[in-house]
Design brief:
By secondary structure, the chain is α/β, with parallel strands linked by helices. It has two domains: 282 residues, tm_1862 like domain (pyruvate-formate lyase- activating enzyme, Alpha-Beta Horseshoe); 72 residues, Orthogonal Bundle (Arc Repressor Mutant, subunit A). The strands form five sheets. It has a nine-stranded mixed β-sheet with strand order 11-12-10-9-8-7-6-2-13, with helices on both faces. Strands 14-15-16 form a three-stranded antiparallel β-sheet, covered by helices on one side. It has a two-stranded parallel ribbon with strand order 1-5. The chain starts with 22 loop residues before the first helix and ends with a helix.
C-alpha cells in the first residue's frame, strides 16, 4: 500500500535561494493565473468556492529518511518570518474565497514544533478565514511536541482533530525510520489531548518496515487500539524517489520487507481494525462511525481546496497549483510583491478533462464507496481501452459493481489497488 502524496513535496533542506533569481518561474502568481483565466468582477478580486484549506508548516527537528514532504530543521529561526508571511497569505485568501470552508488541515513538517505563542498566532490567522460552523480542523503533531499548554492553545483556537505521527511502537523500527520519539510518549500525547478536550485524534502507523515481522505489526495495532483513537491511517512503507532511505536501499544497505509479509500485514490490519469497530473507508484509512477525515475526503472526491505555505498544493477553479516550494523563495516573494500577500505559485495545471477524469478515477477508486456510473462512463468515452480493463478486473474479482451501480474494489482488489490503478489510469 502507498500513501497518496497530496500536500507538500520533498525538496531536501532549504538552500535559501532568492526569489529574484527565480523570477521567470515565479512570475505566475495565483492572482494572475486564475484571475487572468476566469476574469474579475467589477474590479474586485474574483472569488472562488473551495471546500478545504491545506496549510503547510515546514519546520522539523529532524528530517526522517523516508519522508518526501517539504520540511527542514529550522536552524535559522525563521518561524517568526514564516508567520508574518502566513498571515499575509490568509488575508489575501480571505478576499478571494467564496462561501465557507468546511475542512482545514495543517500539516508539515511538524506544526506543533512551533511554540505555544506561535501556534496561537497560526490558529488566530486561520480563524479569520470563512470557516463553516462545525468545520473539521486537523493539526499534525509529533508525540514529543505535544504538551498541555500547546494542546490548550489548539483547542482554544478552534482545532478539533489532531493527527499524531506514531508510526510504530517498536523502538528498533522507529530507529530504522529515523523517528526519534519514545514510544511511551505516544500514550502521553494521547492523554494530554484528551485532557484538553481533543478526543478526536488519529494515529499514523507504518508497516512493511525492513525487518518487521507480522507479529510485531500486530503488536503495533494492539498498542494503537489501546489508546482509543477515533481514526487510524496505516500505510505500507513507500520508498519515494531521492529520499535518504531510498538511496540506502539502492546501495543494498538493507533488504525491503517481503511482499508476502507486507500483504499479510495489510490483511491483518483490515481484520483487526474491523473487529475493533473501525470501518475502512479508503485504501489506508479506518475510522469509527462518523470520524472519517473530512479533509482527505475533499481530496479523494476531487473537490476544490485552497493552499497556503511553501510547497503546499491546491486545486481551485479547475487549476491545480503548487505554492513556491522553498521557504526562502516564499518569504522573498512576499517582499518582492510589496508584502501584499499574493500567493506565489509554480506548476500550474489548467483545466483538462482527460487529466481531471483520470485523477477522479484514481482518487475515487481509493475510497471503499468507489465511483459512480457517470464517472465510469465518461472515463471509457475518453479512453475506450478502459472498458476492457474494467471488465477484466471485475472478472478477476478485483472490482465489483454495487446495487447502486457504483464501481469499487473488492476486499482482494484493495490489496492490489496500486497495480489495478496503474492499468486504469
Amino acid at each position: 500500500m502507498t500513501t497518496l502524496r497530496l500536500h507538500g513535496e520533498g525538496a531536501g533542506d532549504d538552500p535559501h535561494v532568492g526569489a529574484r533569481a527565480l523570477g521567470e518561474v515565479l512570475s505566475g502568481v495565483l492572482s494572475g493565473v486564475l484571475e487572468g483565466a476566469v476574469g474579475r468582477a467589477g474590479g474586485a478580486p474574483r472569488k472562488f468556492p473551495v471546500r478545504g484549506l491545506y496549510a503547510h508548516v515546514p519546520f522539523c527537528f529532524h528530517k526522517c529518511h523516508y519522508c518526501d514532504f517539504y520540511s527542514f530543521v529550522d536552524r535559522e529561526g525563521r518561524s517568526g518570518a514564516f508567520l508574518d508571511r502566513f498571515e499575509a497569505d490568509v488575508a489575501w485568501a480571505c478576499e478571494r474565497i467564496e462561501g465557507e470552508i468546511d475542512t482545514v488541515f495543517v500539516g508539515g513538517g511538524t506544526p506543533t514544533l512551533l511554540t505555544a505563542d506561535e501556534l496561537r498566532r497560526l490558529t488566530a490567522a486561520i480563524a479569520r478565514l470563512p470557516l463553516a460552523r462545525g468545520a473539521e480542523w486537523t493539526v499534525e503533531a509529533n508525540p514529543e511536541t505535544i504538551d498541555r499548554e500547546k494542546a490548550d492553545v489548539l483547542a482554544a483556537g478552534g482545532v478539533n482533530r489532531v493527527s499524531i505521527g506514531a508510526q510504530s511502537f517498536d523502538p528498533k523500527h522507529l530507529k530504522t525510520l529515523e523517528r526519534w520519539h519514545d514510544p511511551a510518549n505516544v500514550a502521553r500525547a494521547a492523554e494530554t489531548l484528551r485532557a484538553a478536550g481533543l478526543v478526536n485524534f488519529n494515529l499514523d502507523l507504518i508497516f512493511g518496515v525492513p525487518g518487521q515481522t507480522l507479529d510485531e505489526w500486530r503488536d503495533d495495532l494492539a498498542q494503537a487500539l489501546a489508546l482509543r483513537p477515533e481514526h487510524l491511517s496505516c500505510y505500507g512503507l513507500t520508498y519515494e524517489p531521492n529520499t535518504a532511505m531510498t538511496k540506502r536501499l539502492q546501495k543494498g544497505e538493507f533488504d525491503p520487507c517481503d511482499d508476502e509479509v507486507e500483504a499479510a500485514m495489510y490483511d491483518a490490519t483490515r481484520t483487526t481494525l474491523a473487529a475493533a469497530g473501525f470501518a475502512q473507508y479508503e485504501i489506508s484509512n479506518f475510522a469509527r462511525a462518523g470520524r472519517e477525515c473530512r479533509h482527505n475526503l475533499v481530496y479523494w472526491r476531487n473537490e476544490p481546496w485552497w493552499a497556503i505555505g511553501p510547497s503546499a498544493s491546491g486545486f481551485v477553479a479547475g487549476h491545480r497549483f503548487k505554492v513556491v516550494p522553498r521557504l526562502g523563495d516564499w518569504l522573498a516573494r512576499g517582499v518582492e510583491a510589496g508584502g501584499d500577500g499574493s500567493q506565489p505559485v509554480v506548476d500550474v495545471e489548467p483545466p483538462d478533462e482527460k487529466r481531471h477524469t483520470s485523477e477522479a478515477l484514481m482518487l475515487g477508486l481509493r475510497l471503499m464507496e468507489g465511483i459512480d456510473a457517470a464517472l465510469e462512463r465518461r472515463a471509457v468515452e475518453l479512453e475506450p481501452a478502459r472498458a476492457a480493463v474494467f471488465a477484466r478486473a471485475i472478472a478477476d474479482g478485483l472490482l465489483e459493481r454495487t446495487a447502486e451501480a457504483r464501481l469499487r474494489f473488492t476486499h482482494r482488489g484493495a490489496a492490489l489497488a496500486n497495480e489495478v490503478l496503474a492499468e486504469i489510469v
